[in-house]
Design brief:
Layout lengths: L9 E6 L6 H12 L5 E6 L2 E2 L10 H18 L6 E4 L2 H5 L2 E2 L1 H12 E2 L2 E7 L12 H7 E7 L11 E6 L7 H5 L8 H9 L8
Parallel strand pairs: 1-2, 1-7, 2-4, 3-5, 7-8, 8-9
Antiparallel strand pairs: 6-7
Helix pairs in contact: 1-2, 2-7, 4-5
């Protein structure tokens, strides 16, 4: 398993965040503690290439919830020295959100030893080789895969660094099904105040 160097590093984290939950908040912490990331750019998708048929709440609501989740993260992990930026890039671009477009946008500012660090989960590995514009990703992206299981077989041809980490059980689908206990405090308050995910019924 490659060694993560102790130095200033930037990483991107994309997703629908429909909604952001405590698992994501814990991942922020893991990115800092296990991944040695010092600057995290969180990029909500406008329309996810993998969830084109889904109907997330508005982009502006998801951005607001992410900003609130970052505030909660700072309360929960006050000793972390992680800088987090919520980027509006994919919302301002519009259309389908492709990781390759995002890597191109951030390459000059986020490049680390020739590639951009992009955080994924181990559930992504089996399909990674089929991602849009995979040849560009192979040469310009370094995927940081946070996993409890250690490395899994990677046949994508892309660079993947497996980072063993603890995992907080929470899922956006379970929140949408009604389990609001998986939300951080400020996000939960926002969801109820704005009657999202069926809370206004």
């Amino acid at each position: 398993m490659p060694i993560i160097e102790m130095k200033s590093r930037t990483a991107l984290l994309g997703g629908t965040f429909n909604p952001v939950h405590m698992g994501h908040v814990h991942l922020f912490h893991e990115a800092y503690e296990a991944g040695r990331i010092s600057n995290l750019i969180v990029i909500p998708a406008y329309i996810s290439n993998f969830k084109r048929g889904s109907h997330p709440v508005s982009f502006s609501d998801r951005v607001k919830m992410l900003s609130l989740a970052v505030e909660d993260y700072r309360d929960i992990y006050p000793d972390d020295k992680l800088e987090i930026t919520v980027s509006l890039f994919e919302g301002e671009k519009g259309g389908i959100s492709y990781t390759s477009d995002t890597i191109r946008e951030f390459f000059d500012s986020a490049e680390d030893n020739g590639k951009v660090n992009f955080i994924i989960g181990d559930d992504i590995i089996p399909t990674l080789g089929h991602w849009h514009d995979i040849e560009y990703l192979r040469s310009h992206a370094r995927f940081l895969c946070f996993t409890r299981l250690g490395s899994v077989e990677n046949e994508s041809g892309a660079e993947v660094i497996f980072i063993k980490s603890s995992v907080y059980h929470a899922s956006s689908s379970e929140v949408r099904a009604g389990d609001m206990t998986m939300l951080s405090p400020r996000v939960r308050e926002y969801v109820y105040a704005n009657k999202l995910y069926g809370t206004g019924k």
